[in-house]
Amino acid sequence: MTKPIVLSTWNFGQPANEAAWKVLSTGGRALDAVEAGVRVPEADPNVTTVGYGGRPDRDGHVTLDACIMDEQGNCGSVAGLEHIMHPISVARKVMENTPHVMLVGDGALQFALESGFKKENLLTPESEKAWREWQKTSQYKPVINVENHDTIGMIALDQNGNLSGACTTSGLAFKMHGRVGDSPIIGAGLYVDNAIGAATATGVGEEVVKIVGCHLVVELMRQKHSPEDACRLAVERIVERQPKKSRDIQVGFLALSKSGEYGAYCLQKGFNYAVRTASRNALLDGKSHY
Ligand code: ASP
């Protein structure tokens, strides 16, 4: 059994894992680890798909989505949240301090401000420049391609054998105002069942929502599929449903079992994920369907 262990999507997962590892390696709770971990790319202006520095929507608003889930099945989520650098921490407060699971838009902002979060401008000069460039050629048409998105999803198993997960994103660059993908949707962008395992997703959220991706991955693990196999079967579900479309988009799943076994699978080559244990600190390539 490998524990503690933390996994996260993409190469910005490595510095995020480091922050999570500080919590896990000192006997801390997986929930605290995943929150601390994903706060790293949220605050990094050079990560253009998460938090501060995330690309705005087509109207120039940086709107953020995040969710978190603990070992007891509690969860919290925010979507379309503006002006707050750490949506994951707001999602955790929704989970812990309200009777609800999800707050969106102005209501999420109001709750964040009441909870003591600072209102900030999240549109960096670089993001504004990229948006102005996009405006020149886009004709205000939102596009989905393999480049204009990427989310940090993080899943962890702590010393006590408990699982938790967190997922946070600015979503698709230059999306329609109000667009929400899979990342803040429990069961789609993230799912944790402390008896079985945890999964998180990245890529075109619309396709992940349509198959309730991460819940599917965890249910496949319940049926005794390995984490990699469960991720592969979820990817194949997308291909079966939309063989043509699946060639042009990216979706990746990452999963961790209760025993610390892990795996990933994606549609296109190019999805990588970071793993951190006491003996391993690596960036690995997910196997791909195409
Ligand atoms: N899943 C995210 C979304 O659709 C984007 C990504 O992870 O690439 O908002």
TrEMBL record:
The record's section on SUPFAM superfamilies has: N-terminal nucleophile aminohydrolases (Ntn hydrolases) (SSF56235)
One matching Pfam family, short form? Asparaginase_2
Query: What CDD domains does the annotation carry?
Result: Glycosylasparaginase (cd04513)
Q: What's the superkingdom here?
A: Bacteria
The entry's protein name is N(4)-(Beta-N-acetylglucosaminyl)-L-asparaginase
Originating organism: Pendulispora brunnea
Q: What is the lineage of its organism?
A: Bacteria, Pseudomonadati, Myxococcota, Myxococcia, Myxococcales
